[in-house]
Specification:
Blueprint: H1 5-10, H2 29-36, H3 42-45, E1 54-58, H4 65-70, E2 76-81, H5 86-96, H6 99-108, E3 121-125, E4 148-152, H7 158-181, E5 193-199, H8 203-216, E6 217-221, H9 229-232, E7 237-244
Helix pairs in contact: 7-8
GO cellular component, one term: cytosol
Protein name: Methyltransferase small domain-containing protein
GO molecular function: S-adenosylmethionine-dependent methyltransferase activity
Amino acid sequence: MAFGDLFGLLGPEIQDPEEGMSDGPWKITPLIASWLSSLDNLLWKTGALSSSSSVLELGCGISGLVGLTVSPLVSRYVLTDQTYVARLVEKNLEENAVPQQRSSYQKRKGKSPSAANPVNLGFSTLDWELDEVTTSLTGSSDVASFDAVIACDCIYNDALIEPLVQTCADACSLRQRSQESGAQSNEAAAPALCVVAQQLRDPEIFEGWIRGFSRHFRVWRVPEEMLSKELRANPGFVIHIGVLKHAVAP
């Protein structure tokens, strides 16, 4: 399958922001981590994610679970959250990272990582309201944008909606900006994807998010049959995929 097949598999683009609302009391992060790291899911099958992908996660929390699970499968994975979680998330990553990831923390302590264990998982502070999204988030002079931006269970109240949506848009815009500036002439033409997974708690909060998100993005909801068995068994999970409206149409 090719990248363009992704949107055919997703089905109709969401035109009505109120479409598909529901509620449920489940914890989403472990199940999403498992789904994202399964090579059977549509993102891997269509090439939207691959071993060469660079991924940015917003609001990773102290566990960094999604990054720990997905980063061994991609080229670069950058976790972000606010400053107050930095010490705890970095400690958790150091204790739980696989060898090639752990090398980044060894390097900070004066130990040189093995050339066979390239660093591909890192953490950077990012406040959605205060910080500017720039290419420096990639952590590499050779990478100017991300193939995917992930936000998992980040929407708890109305105050978070606008800053999160704008940060998602700014992060995905790095792809187009880098192409226009020629910063990455060898970069794939595919637009950056924004993958938002959430546990539906309050219909009004979800409605506010989907309306705001739809102002910037073309939006698809991942069909239930394309979710994992564990996700399907628990109502109240939704995963949406967005592509910036001004990006190259899929």
